[in-house]
Design a protein that fits this description.
By secondary structure, the protein is α/β, with parallel strands linked by helices. It has two domains: 3-85, no CATH class; 90-267, Vaccinia Virus protein VP39 (Rossmann fold, 3-Layer(aba) Sandwich). The protein contains ten helices and nine strands. It has helices spanning 6-11, 20-36, 41-58, 69-75, 77-85, 90-106, 122-130, 143-151, 188-198, 229-236, and strands spanning 112-116, 135-140, 156-159, 171-177, 199-208, 214-218, 222-226, 240-247, 260-267. The strands form two sheets. Strands 3-2-1-4-5-9-8 form a seven-stranded mixed sheet, sandwiched between helices. The chain has a two-stranded antiparallel ribbon with strand order 6-7. Helix 2 runs antiparallel to helix 3 (41-58), helix 3 (41-58) crosses helix 5 and helix 6 (90-106) crosses helix 7. The longest helix has 18 residues, at 41-58. The radius of gyration is 19 Å and the shape is globular.
Length: 268
């Protein structure tokens, strides 16, 4: 489908049974428009909304609605916009590989990793580039992000919110990068319990850091909840100890990456 046909396609989209190829095309063209500044904000928002409709149709048999306000926020258009407006950059991937290399050197006995809130699969791809023998699983609430992650064929990607995720499996390492800040403080206790239950041995918390609890506005309608997640987890579970940590460092660091570092924890 050529770009000149997309407007006509959009008018008929609700009468079409969408395919993965159509979602991929619309996503790619939307990213090109944003990067080249060739469309109005209102038109971009329309494209993002239609992408949301498409992926909901593609994954309608998998979706379980998260009733929390935070879950609805990241499940919907805002989650799509985050993925589209934050394309992968070589400099960021270089930083991620450097950080994950340090983490994996400290955890040579890791054979399986699950990331809660895996987004478009960027972290998992960088982990697999270091060690292809690690079994990879990702859990993500936004259907479009799941679509992008599954395209990378990096491992099993599950469409679910963190709070709704259920499994009897456990993993050598549980990873969260920029996920806990999106969870309402009232739900953190349940999130910590899930993280602890899923982990055979290691947990990596990679979040913005604050000694005091801080509520930050996100794009006017959303919220991020910044706090000392590591201290809370170590206080809640007395067999969890800190192994190593380091700040995320790369050029052009800004926005929600400020004051963010990874912390490796180990269950004894």
């Amino acid at each position: 489908m050529k770009w000149r046909k997309i407007k006509k396609y959009l008018k008929n989209i609700r009468r079409i049974n969408p395919t993965f190829k159509e979602v991929e095309l619309l996503s790619r063209k939307t990213q090109e428009l944003i990067q080249e500044n060739k469309a109005t904000k209102s038109y971009i928002k329309e494209l993002e909304a239609r992408i949301g409709f498409l992926v909901e149709e593609v994954y309608k048999n998998e979706i379980v609605i998260d009733e929390s306000s935070e879950g609805n926020f990241w499940y919907g258009d805002e989650g799509i916009q985050y993925i589209i407006r934050n394309p992968e950059k070589p400099s960021t991937n270089k930083t991620l590989r450097e950080c994950f290399s340090k983490i994996l050197l400290k955890t040579p006995d890791v054979n399986s990793i699950i990331e809660l809130g895996c987004g478009n699969g960027r972290n998992l791809v960088n982990i697999q580039s270091i060690n292809r023998n690690i079994k990879i699983t990702g859990v993500e609430i936004n259907p479009y992000a799941v679509f992008e992650a599954r395209r990378k064929r990096v491992g099993e990607i599950i469409l679910s919110s963190l709070l709704n995720f259920k499994t009897d499996l456990t993993y050598d390492l549980v990873l969260l990068r920029g996920t806990l800040v999106t969870i309402n403080p009232d739900d953190l206790d349940a999130a910590y319990d899930l993280i602890y239950k899923l982990s055979n041995k290691y947990i990596v918390i990679w979040e913005r850091q604050a000694e005091e609890n801080v509520e930050v506005s996100y794009r006017s309608t959303g919220k991020l909840y910044v706090r000392d997640f590591v201290a809370e987890i170590c206080e809640k579970y007395n067999n969890v100890k800190l192994v190593d940590s380091d700040w995320e460092k790369h050029s052009g660091i800004s926005g929600d990456q400020k004051n963010r570092k990874w912390v490796l924890l180990e269950k004894s």
